[in-house]
Amino acid sequence: MEGTSSGEEEEEAEDSSNETRLSPETAVAADDSAPYIGQRFLTHDAAYEFYGGFAKRCGFSIRRHRTEGKDGVGKGLTRRYFVCHRAGNAPAKPFSDGATPQRNRKSSRCGCRAYLRIGRDAGAGGPEWRVTGFSNHHNHELLRQDQVRFLPAYRVISDSDRDRILLFAKSGIFVQQMMRIMELEKRVEPGSLPFTEKDVSNLIHSFRRSNQEEENVDLLKMCRIFKEKDPNFKYDFTRDAHNRLVNIAWSYASSIQSYKVFGDAVVFDTSHRLTAMDMPLGIWIGMNNHGMPCFFGCTLLREENLQSFTWALQVFLNFMNRKAPQTILTDQNIYLKEAVEKELPTTKHALSIWLIATRFPSLFNAVLGEHYNDWENEFYRLHNMENTMDFDHGWNDMVDCYGLHGNRHIASLFASRNIWALPYLRGHFSAGLTASPGVSKSISDFIQRLLSAQRRLSHFIEQAAVVVDYKDQAGEQQTVQQNLKNINLKTAAPMESHAAAIFTPYAFSKLQDELVAAAHYASFHLEGDVFLVRHHAKTDGGSIVTWHQRGELISCSCQMFESSGILCRHTLRVLTTLNYFQIPDHYLPVRWHKTLPPPSKSLICAPKYSGASERVKTLQSIVSALVSEAAKSDERMDLATHEVSVLLSRIRQQPVSVNVSGDSAHSSLAAVAKDFISSENVNISK
Fold this sequence. Notes:
By secondary structure, this protein is of the alpha+beta class. Helices cover 45% and strands 15% of the residues. It is built from 26 helices and 17 strands.
């Protein structure tokens, strides 16, 4: 910015009109490329460019200062000053009346006197500019070459890069992904682009600001249209004093129904942004009885603050009829932590380890170098330990081994270990969301597919519904595939076959692993109802199992059942010792059953009529025959799975009528099935 300098600066400029002064710090860097008195340039822009290159090599940047004269007036422009970016002092900010918020950032200006002055003798008619004053004495430290590029003057987004960034933004690509793509395209090292992630975010934000109101209106319109199509769709929103959208949240009918059964453990992932609207995106997600992600709801927030997160949690509870989860997993966010404590006082709040771990490469890769992978393996080994004492001792050994004393990120992780490390979370139900890497990948893949819906912002709500519905159909298809496969019993124990008949293949595989392992454990009756169970090859340690015969209650010190809903090897060993041939019903949680409770009547749009039970029996008979025939070969199984999935999709496309008689409904269903089978030439009984 151009302006007038103080009298002291002007006096110094005049005194040094025939002197070139270099500080010791820049004398070496300057070399022959330093400006000097009498140096000539064709234009003042050429002089500015030359001085800017010199400044960058030395470790500072420059800005245009004051001028003398004016183009087209009198002698014209006769003198220009270029100064260090830290020259002068920041003007005092006026006191705020509180109506307009102000950012109270500290100024970088510190009164530096480094400058370059150029002038020309207009009377002589010479077009050239000559250096008439130069001082390179700085009253601040100069930056290293790996730091100077972060100065605002050198962070430039070219027109071509700008167009590419905006194209990426419209495609729903994250800022971090944009940076990686452009680094690969330009063949530069990570972090070597001439702009930062913040610059890219600011560019996208400024681009979106112009048409943001229209997009907000479209988003609300989408919700209203979807509500008209599906009365069980729920949404809520807030506006500011200027009637602009601030927050919005929504959930689909199928999501609300899923939450009734699987809402015991929830991940609230707020680590993403809806790039198309430049708003933080929060996603509620859980795990169903087949170990697959199930979507519960979405929210877009203007700001990530306590007020916004509190509103989001309140609305989510309203969507779910005020039913709070047993456990909620989130990212590290102080405002979100406070909101959970306030709105979910009875819910266990834990940090999602896979959300935390996504930042490990940026936090520890440079520190650990080639030892990073070994450290990561050790971290996860500690994370999965059984007791807190072993975890604490192992953590201290890890810090010593990798020289991480004084690392603030390691210190922060250890200080918060009680809300992310498994030894400290045992006893709090998580449905396996805290343990399995496969689960975290499955959820991440689902979220990425959901985020891809923003490529058509005008239909975002509908597109997100398609993604959710696709996931539901994929889950049903996997269910069919799992049920068609023959389950291999490994122990021939009656408890195993009993569980296989009740649990889904996913849950049964977890229990089966424990049953197989139980055969390698010995149980010792200590006294009363207490047993000690440990591996046959060990002579110390073990787990304490307590058995209460009256209520058929059993518990283990490892607390696996409380955490996952699956009995551990220790309890299974004691039940075998006590001659149990079936697992007590209360240790076969409904959330892991093959057959789930029927949906709530309020969420069913199906017709009600007296012939419904007969129709269901007929359909069950057809499905039973289908399964029986399909299980006879792999080819039949594949064919049945594919065709049933297509049939299910077609059924969902049929209109729903609320006034249908039992006979006509039965006939219509039979006709649809018959027409489908004949049109697709399905013949499983060959």
